[in-house]
Design a protein that fits this description.
The structure is a homodimer of 453-residue chains. With 453 residues, chain A is an alpha/beta fold. In chain A, helix 1 runs parallel beside helix 8. The longest helix of chain A has 16 residues. At the A-B interface, helix 8, strand 21, strand 22, helix 10 and helix 11 of A face helix 8, strand 21, strand 22, helix 10 and helix 11 of B.
């Protein structure tokens, strides 16, 4: 029995490892288009500044290590077509250029997501890069070594763009960030975004919101090297451009094989991570999931979620018939990032999403300290909590500042348990003066909302 | 209508403030034996070192401020007897020495807890102190100013003793800590306690566990000043001794008035914070509560819990007949403290408690980093998670190191929501490299336990 896994970053490698443990006899082949496996893509922005010093440290497990565990990892192997009726994969060995055709019994598709590259004028210039794969970071670092850029532009103020901006500033570059939406961090509310933008300004990043990028130019040098970015008729010098214009799921292989694509544009799977094709599982940034608060199909392309999905998909793909499969119930849309000294996080539905999902959202905002008022060293904690007016159920939260990771994880756990604001008011959280105020901002916010119900 | 509140620290002041908001017409009198109200007792250890510099900063609200809110706060008023049939309080004004007798309609007892002082030989020597009230810290600071002690002893390795040890070391004293149990932090398991003891040793505290204190001596000087502590035949020099031998609920007033005392020795109340006497509520360190995991009556004398109980009791004591009262469902036994650079926390039932409560506990221990492995600056996070073998329900957790506050609050929220390890495995917590490993230690521990079920 052979399990073919297509895609070897987070979900695929986790799935292969789990399948190996579930069925030691299974023949497992992992196809990976890139030269490396098990890449910690979330660490890539930090490689640019040298915060993460070694390329190898971003590789959790090499093809050789997979080999030792009895998983055949074929890197630089691009799978181009799945004939699921015949149970055959065809593709190309990118090292030799040779085509290959191989059979399988069960298939797991974990092709992930890729960076979107809008058709900006001058996108083909040297010095303009996406940052999605480890090989992208190789190319950016080589460009920096060769050209020693002094000024950089970042297109997009999502979390990747913000992390890149921080790391380029750390490297000593002057950074211009251009975002087409009205504020950076479009998934967040304007209060959190305002705090991020203030923080970016303090750190010397030149931020332009509500500005569409027109393109990039070599400044008439004719050498094909980027020199500037232009947006809404303005121009800023940039010898390096990183485009963080979002990502999209890689679904072509699954779609052509006949697997159903969901409303979000990612592959549709059930709780067992099965696609619509019998014997084909999918997991990671290429699938959609259920939102556990709103119920709608949701695309949540994140490393930790991919890992959790991979565990379920890999286990199920290796089970004998009749064994009880694992289930992945869905996501809360939890996310976090750091930009310079500011943590920013969210979970669940914010107000506008909650209204769209049919709730009657009511919210409360708390600004508190990360320690008791009298205990020195406290930093600002911002928390906005959203609940449903009718049921009191907690729907979501966004937070920034100190302890953003703690705040969001408490709220995510509360969402998972379907807790109400009445629960949160009496919740027995941990208090001592060095760790926060006597009543957590979560309890404070719930108490305010309770007064509005 | 008059509400008398006896005791004005956390629960009493919160209750009085809530009662004021619920019924603006209510006549509210707050009796407080100490000279100050609304004292942040959790901050007292930090006053010794000057980490908390100002005495006033530990007073959240003064008697005058209560007056402005329409709450009459009578400090230095000791209530000595309650005649609940007549609805009369009698006591003594400690400033004037005059007795008083005053009527009430409703009564709220928030007399808190006091430090235990075991009958050690030499307890009466100058320089031997408990640390429970703000006035205790006044006396200790005066002793330090007058006598400039170079060496101190701390009796008891509970969280107060450990916090005091840290603060005395910060002040430049040599500190000997003596604990009668087999390890410090008796409420925790031996792994966490071992880490605390290693950390204390690194910081230069001389720790003696499994040693009973015999007493204190003035070294034959006959001047009544403490010079040493003796334990199990050994002696250590100490010109200052802080006894942190535990606390006990102050229940005499309630007991003599006829209120039922629970099995823990604290006042028994229902979810509405009503005592067995109609028209008498109680809240704070003097009452017991239900444990929401084990179900047993539990005494959880902590500032945040007192605050939450005070909110419920104060609201209910001010409601008109027929209004829906608030409820305080119970506690999880959550606690946290910092000792030097180490955070230590727990929630719910640890293994031995869980077995006693009729569960079949199974546990997993995880040692992880506070950031992704490749991201610099990560510190050790230790987490032990306990679940029930039959149901998979999460029962408790203990944690120490970095992010102890985050770990314990995630677990406390999970306990409140009665989540299982299967829930935790797929829980959508927040991940980015600066904040932890891709899968939280909570998820890792749940996955290990799941494999044992």
């Amino acid at each position: 029995m052979r399990l073919a896994v297509v895609g070897g970053v987070a979900a695929g490698t986790k799935a292969a490892s789990r399948a190996r443990r579930v069925d030691p006899e299974l023949d497992i082949v992992l196809y990976q288009e890139e030269p490396d496996t098990s890449i910690s893509e979330c660490g890539l922005p930090y490689r640019l500044s040298g915060t993460v010093g070694s390329r190898d440290s971003l590789i959790a497990r090499t093809p050789e290590e997979f080999g030792e565990k009895g998983i055949e990892a074929r890197v630089l192997h691009r799978v181009e077509r799945v004939d699921h009726e015949r149970r055959v994969l065809t593709g190309r060995n990118l090292k030799t250029g040779e085509p290959f055709e191989e059979g399988y019994d069960r298939l797991l598709i974990s092709t992930g997501a890729r960076a979107k590259m809008p058709p900006f004028e001058g996108s083909e210039l040297a010095g303009v890069f996406p940052l999605r794969f480890l090989t992208d970071s190789d190319a950016i670092l080589e460009h920096i070594r060769e050209h020693s850029p002094g000024r950089a532009a970042v297109v997009g103020g999502g979390y990747i763009g913000l992390e890149v901006a921080e790391n380029l500033v750390s490297l000593g570059l002057e950074v211009t960030l251009v975002e087409s939406a009205g504020h950076v961090a479009a998934a967040y509310g304007s209060e959190v975004a305002g705090k991020i933008q203030d923080h970016l300004a303090e750190k010397g990043v030149s931020v332009h919101t509500g500005q569409r990028v027109d393109g990039f130019s070599d400044g008439g040098h004719g050498d094909g090297q980027v020199r500037s970015i232009s947006f809404e008729g303005r121009e800023a010098p940039a010898e390096l451009v990183i485009v963080g214009a979002g990502i999209e799921p890689v679904v072509e292989l699954a779609e052509e094989a006949g697997a159903e694509i969901g409303v979000t544009g990612a592959i549709r799977v059930n709780e067992r991570m099965e696609t619509s094709l019998p014997g084909v599982w999918a997991a990671g940034d290429n699938v959609e999931s259920s939102h556990l608060v709103g119920g709608a199909p949701t695309w949540a392309p994140l490393g930790d979620t991919a890992n959790q999905m991979g565990r379920v998909a890999g286990t199920n793909a290796a089970l004998a018939d009749g064994d009880t499969p694992l289930e992945f119930p869905g996501v809360l849309g939890t996310g976090i990032f750091k930009v310079f000294d500011l943590g920013v996080a969210k979970t669940g539905l914010l107000e506008s999403d909650a209204a769209e999902a049919g709730f009657s959202p009511v919210s409360a905002t708390v600004e508190a300290g990360s320690s008791a008022g009298y205990y020195p060293g406290g930093q600002e904690v911002f928390l906005k909590l959203v609940a449903d007016k009718d049921s009191g159920r907690v729907l979501g939260a966004e937070t920034c500042g100190a302890q953003a990771d703690k705040m969001v994880d408490i709220c995510a756990t509360a969402l998972w348990g379907r807790l109400t604001v009445a629960d949160l008011i009496n919740l027995d959280l941990a208090y001592a003066p060095p760790f926060g105020p006597a009543l957590s901002p979560v309890i404070q916010a719930a108490t305010i909302i309770s007064g509005k119900l």
